[in-house]
Amino acid sequence: MYELLSKIQSPADLKTLNRDQLKQVAIELRQAIVDNLSKTGGHFASDLGAVELILALHTVFNVPTDKIIWDTGHQCYAHKMLTGRLGRFNTLRQYGGLSGFLRREESEYDLFGAGHAGTSISAAYGFAVARDMAGRADESVLAVIGDASMTSGLALEGLHNAGHSGRNFVVVLNDNDMSIAESVGGLATYLAKLRVSPIYQQAEARGKEFLKKVPGTPGRMVNKAAGSLLRHNLTHMVSSDNSGVVFEELGFEYIGPVDGHDLDLCIDLFTQIKQMTGPVFVHLRTVKGKGYDAAEENARKWHAVTPPMFADTATGTASGSKSSGQSWTSFFSDTIIDLAKTDPTIAAITAAMPDGTGLNKFKEVFPDRYFDTAIAEQHAVAFAAGMAADGMKPIAAIYSTFLQRAYDMIMHEVCLQNLPVAFCLDRAGLVGDDGPTHHGVFDIAYMRHLPRIGMLAPKDGPEMAAMLRYMLTEHVTGENASPIAIRYPRGNAPSIDWGVAESPIVYGKSETIKTGSDVTMLAFGNMVAPAFEAVKELEAEGISVEFINLRWAKPLDEAAILASARKTGHVIVMEEGCVSGGVGSAVLELLAANGVSNVKAKLFGVPDKFVEHGAIPILHRLCMLTAQDFAAAARDLLGKPQPEPTRLATDAPEKHESLTA
Question: Is 377 a residue of the active site?
């Protein structure tokens, strides 16, 4: 199917191909991305847009001797296929298969793990310093970063530190006008200005002169690149205030913008850059979704895909199938829009994730109260703190795994000053196919120990709506206002008849769903649903369960927990977060502080390992977060016999190296 691509076992094989063959490889790479993602899902438009860039880099440079450090990693599917992983590409994002991001343990060509944005420049500069200290002067070091990741404060810190170092170091900007949604902010505006300035219409002669100064530049390259390659003396004139190009001022030689889909030009350009010295900044222009009409026309929709979107892989016509139920994210979005209609002080903040957090809907209704800070979580939290200090009710809607990047701001700007910011942590818990860089399993532990902050998690959609209403109408108002966070998972909320009337949300108070005398089961957030199944299973066996929906990780409902623990003498705590420092730890601390020592306890949560990527049901079995696991633990605590196992052939193995190593 892939005549040339299938013969490439390593980047060294590319160096044996002529330019026409390399262009055929580019075509086959795109086809392989479409063919495989139509079955596995994954990041799509960004990978189609990076094909020629990746192909050119691997043709010119000699990885892993030369170091190419990729940002975020979701753009690197072509890189995976060119480095010996084509045969396993059909396992992408599947349990036991290839990661959707870069992982050092997966390949010697993945020199630095990537999953979060903005890390490549700092990491690559570290490689450059290590190279120089070891005396390996002939090695090239490059950081490849997208324009959206350039808005990250970390990326700018890396540029600032590396630019005036004088070291041989290349930053390649893959500029496609987009992050997941449209890129925003001053830097995005600046890059747009560079792209469209009429200066480039007048630059052909000067571009030629620059290229002629580079030793060994072919005449063909001089003619093709004129008008595209510009140095400081050209780009200096682009700035309206004539202050010069920001990258030049940071100490880099600036080259660009260059057509990132012109493979001949990219190969010639990188061949020359390999001979240059000092810090170099290369600005490539690419099209997100290149080569796939539907993705080019709507890169935002096709940023990441699921198999149903590929009913017709030639056109990208979706099959029309939809998942049942309402997502946690939509419950969040609908509720805050409803609240904001009557409260003009409510504002919403996202860090470049308007669609994922559901704030794109809020933006449509309240554009003046919607703020996208780009990929800058630290700024987003400090910005929210400033709004709260002046009487607003800011909602900081950020994925759990991304909010951990703003930990210091949560502590210093928000909690220390007791500012009533409402944190809404989407994708809390295990997220499935995106794997360990995106599992939101640490938020309970990294927030619970901070003074003044409260933390909730709902068992279902209606309870989530009630919690949000409590947060924004009671908790963050008045003299006793303080920071508060709500965490909720990816996917659809359960629709369950709990058998009890919904009780109001009260600060630090749990909800008792069933009373019992044999064992206490304390469940938090989305673990309430599987725990409820375990309760029904146990009660059918004659075991009396006291079942409590904790609602709060902080503050705990101390009175209810202590009373139940003393009554049953057996306690099981269930959470979809790390066990270390989680809700279960808080319960044990509570029991110890109150001298309750005659209780047998079992904690369920994510173990002290980085959990693999894979479907959520598989990961729940790996982490022992199923109704069957909870019921078995209750029987063990009570000394009851276990029923015969009925494990399915499709179940995850009992042990997995990522959880047991």
Answer: yes
